[in-house]
Specification:
The chain has no helices and 19 strands. The chain is 0% helix and 59% strand. With 226 residues, it is mostly beta strands. The strands form 4 sheets. The chain has a 5-stranded antiparallel sheet, with no helix packed on it. The protein has a 5-stranded antiparallel sheet with strand order 15-12-17-10-19, with no helix packed on it. A 5-stranded antiparallel sheet has the order 14-13-16-11-18, with no helix packed on it. The radius of gyration is 17 Å and the shape is globular. It has 2 domains: 4-106, Jelly Rolls, CATH 2.60.120.10; 112-222, Sandwich (Jelly Rolls), CATH 2.60.120.
């Protein structure tokens, strides 16, 4: 195996109504955008898209982004070489902050995909002890969640983010009084295109009813090296 170091970064971008910003060509070879609220007009290489709340989009290279008539809040994941420059946005009516970053070792001889999805739980829901087939960064959209892994239990609130490596077993419990959801991007083996990435640690949990529900927005091949 010939592993190379990459970095997955999560930014939170806020744009005032009708603000416009250019995301540079060299900021990320692979990018995923999830709109939390408002709307976003995107253009890249002649292709355009308009996203409403709870929708996702991905591209490689430069992209022009414009907010609609309401303020826009978006989450932006970028996968790039570990020594690539910071990709926080700047401009009139635009604020951008780096929420989380994680190093990933990927093998250019293997095939990967980027998955952007959303996971929803009812009040009192839980994700039984499990692993995933690849690492990724999550961000809480609403509600509250506690993540237990490596013997430590950590609570997360609104727009807090965390990284899960994939092979480390995780148990999650959400608020008992309100619905909870998070958005995430994971880098997975391409063999999982259109398939679940989760594996349950305890064989007895496989057949149990699950409280979480999934919405997949992006399942896109990643071409290495970046």
């Amino acid at each position: 195996m010939h592993g190379m170091e990459y970095e997955l970064r999560l930014y939170m971008d806020q744009m005032a109504p009708q603000a416009v910003v250019q995301m540079p060509l060299n900021s990320a070879p692979v990018r995923a955008i999830y709109v939390v609220s408002g709307s976003l007009r995107l253009g890249s290489g002649g292709a355009t898209a308009t996203l409403g709340a709870n929708s996702g989009w991905h591209n490689r290279g430069a992209v022009r982004a414009g907010a609609g008539y309401l303020a826009n809040l978006a989450l932006r994941w970028e996968l790039a070489a570990h020594d690539s420059p910071d990709a926080a946005l700047a401009g009139g009516g635009v604020t951008s902050s780096l929420l989380n970053t994680a190093k990933l070792t990927l093998d250019p001889e293997l095939a990967y995909l980027l998955r952007c999805d959303r996971v929803d739980f009812p009040p009192g829901g839980e994700a039984l002890l499990h692993t995933h087939a690849g690492g990724g960064i999550r961000c809480l959209l609403f509600g509250a969640i506690e993540i237990e892994t490596k013997g430590k239990r950590t609570p997360y609130g609104l727009l807090a983010s965390w990284f899960e490596s994939g092979p480390d077993p995780v148990y999650a419990a959400v608020s008992k009084t309100e619905s909870t959801a998070f958005a995430r991007v994971m880098i997975l083996p391409r063999s999982l295109l259109g398939k679940s990435s989760i594996s349950y640690v305890n064989a007895g949990d496989v057949a149990k009813p699950k409280s979480q529900q999934y919405q997949v927005f992006i399942d896109a091949p990643v071409e290495l090296p970046l």
